[in-house]
Amino acid sequence: MDTITNTLKSQWEALKAENPHIRIRNAAKELGVSEAELLATQVGDTVTRLKPEFAAILTDVETLGKVMALTRNEECVHERKGTYLNPDFSSPYAGLFVGEDIDLRIFHMHWEKAFAVNEHSQHGSRKSLQFFGKDGLAMHKIYLTPDSNEKAFDTLVAKYKSDNQSTNETAVEIPLSIEEKADSSIDVVAFREEWINLKDTHDFFGMLKKYGVTRTQALRLAPEGNYAEQIDKLAIVTMLEGAAEQKLPIMVFTGNRGNIQIHTGPIRKTMWHNDWYNVMDPDFNMHLDMSKIAQVWIVRKPTEDGMVTAIEVFNELGEIIVQFFGKRKPGIPELQGWRDLVASL
Known about the structure:
By secondary structure, the chain is an alpha+beta fold. It has helices at residues 3-18, 24-31, 35-40, 54-60, 150-160, 188-196, 203-211, 215-220, 235-246, 336-343; strands at residues 47-50, 65-72, 76-82, 87-88, 95-98, 103-106, 113-121, 124-132, 138-148, 228-231, 250-256, 259-265, 270-273, 276-280, 284-289, 295-303, 306-314, 320-326. It has 2 domains: 3-72 and 113-160, 3-Layer(aba) Sandwich (Heme iron utilization protein-like fold), CATH 3.40.1570; 183-343, Heme iron utilization protein-like fold (3-Layer(aba) Sandwich), CATH 3.40.1570. It is built from 10 helices and 18 strands. The protein has a 9-stranded antiparallel β-sheet. A 9-stranded antiparallel β-sheet has the order 4-5-6-12-11-18-17-16-10. The relative contact order is 0.13.
């Protein structure tokens, strides 16, 4: 272990002694390194490096049984329990898991490193698989639950263990591209026309690329009528409380550049904790930092099944934090209960 790793390791030990409950993501921020660099200091102890064979590893996760999938960005954490079923890595752009419980869109070109982690605390041990981008930012984590198959976890780790078990880790900064073209240089008339004539919500992203508009700019330039309206961020709380009260099944999409994780179903228990608004259900937890929300929009997109209504939540940089929809599937119109709930906001 080299001096830099050694120093980082002892800095982290000191930080944990001072603040035993600090999370690794926050510790990394405090120490001015990436989470992957900090995690790597534990290789050979509680951490094992895995080969970066992401599709193969994820396909084998089904053998672990019921696990907890965690995907997050800076402002929102999405935790969903279930079994990884129906993997599809046939597309070079995105891998999929489409199950009732675990529903993911994986952009594996952004995935770079994989680790198996066995953390020990006063509550016992906690085993997980953790995947990071080249900047050392976590793309996705999979935690064992009391219902998981631990033996299968050990088999998977042995199968994918890397020859490289170095404690050294590097992280490359990925520059943010949030340049926005001037509204005057966009063909707004054609853009609005195309929006009005959308047939599928998935075509929306392609439309933004075609006209070179950012997402928040698109909402500002939306067609006349009810296509996009900005609302207060506390409307999210009203919506989630309303959905819980009415037992209305909703969809919650949270992601980062490497993965999008989706919950579909009703929610039950909602609550505040400091700046965070939370859903705390047995199989689904969401933690949303309300203090970091800059804009919230109701967005309506035409499809062959009628209008689809979303609530889209953005940070200061115009990046999407989380999206909410009523539960729906292709070929089935949107739930009227969801439309009414959103209209009441």
